[in-house]
Design a protein that fits this description.
The protein has about 250 residues and is an alpha+beta fold. It is built from nine helices and eight strands. The chain has two domains: about 80 residues, OB fold (Dihydrolipoamide Acetyltransferase, E2P) (Beta Barrel); about 170 residues, de novo design (two linked rop proteins) (Up-down Bundle), CATH 1.20.1440. About 40% of the residues lie in helices and about 20% in strands. The longest helix has 16 residues. The chain starts with a strand and ends with a helix. It binds zinc ion. Zinc ion binds next to helix 5.
């Protein structure tokens, strides 16, 4: 009774006549659904406190085997204000939120996922570069799922000397495999940057910041691997890509 659980709101949607349904990522119970009864009534003061990407302590009664609970109360731990006000941070939060949803399953290592997502929102809130944060979160979640890009050797023949990256083959290719697969060779620094981004943790952000000028081409490859091999289409990333150029124009 009255379980208090720290969690991050990933999604909010309308539920029944006047309620809201929240998808919340927690350390203890993974992804859960919480119903905020009456939150959409004009008199409700709760709705404004149920923003996506905020970190809260949620009060509800947990029952084993159930996934949906009635929210009794919540108290804000971290608003991450920048995620709601800055265009780039907000678009990137959408990508991180979708990744946390589509790349985690039941019986998952939620403690590490929670830390990863929380740290990503923290960095976005600090106005750090969204390309690096998305790239690191994506490559980490891929590794946790055992589907990380192969950046240690040629994916086909395991030769150590590599010259190209192929989403279709899931990682690096050596010269002869690249030629037979009709994949264009890359610059050495591109291979290095892709490898760095694929191996990095968020704690390496400051180092990567100096080493990778633009992480987007590498995220594109990882997103393509997800699409081709795992049937995951990352809608929020396409929104992020198409709207990000508007940021500088505004
Ligand atoms: Zn090869």
């Amino acid at each position: 009774m009255n379980d208090k659980v720290e969690g991050i709101i990933l999604k909010q949607s309308d539920y029944k006549d006047s309620s809201l349904l929240l998808q919340v990522l927690t350390k203890e119970y993974g992804k859960i659904m919480l119903v905020a009864n009456g939150a959409r009534k004009p008199t409700s003061k709760t709705a404004s406190r149920l923003l996506p990407y905020t970190k809260n302590e949620f009060l509800f009664d947990y029952h084993e085997g159930k996934n949906m609970f009635r929210l009794k109360n919540l108290s804000l731990i971290q608003l991450y204000r920048n995620l709601h006000e800055d265009v780039e941070a907000s678009l990137a939060s959408g990508v991180i939120g979708e990744l946390a949803d589509v790349m985690t399953y039941e019986e998952y290592d939620y403690e590490n996922v929670y830390q990863l997502i929380d740290e990503a929102f923290y960095l976005l809130n600090e106005d750090k570069r969204s390309d690096l944060i998305i790239g690191i979160v994506l490559s980490n979640l891929m590794k946790m799922n055992g589907i990380g890009a192969n950046v240690d050797e040629c994916t086909i023949c395991q030769k150590k000397n590599v010259v190209a990256i192929s989403a279709k083959d899931g990682g690096f290719l050596c010269a002869s495999c690249a030629q037979s697969m009709h994949v264009q060779p890359r610059q050495v620094n591109e291979l290095k940057e892709f490898r760095l981004l694929s191996k990095a943790q968020l704690e390496h952000y400051d180092i990567l910041h100096n080493l990778i000028e633009d992480g987007h081409p590498y995220i594109d490859i990882l997103v393509e691997i997800l699409r081709l091999h795992h049937g995951i289409s990352l809608n929020s990333y396409h929104v992020y890509q198409s709207l990000l150029p508007l940021k500088d124009a505004s």
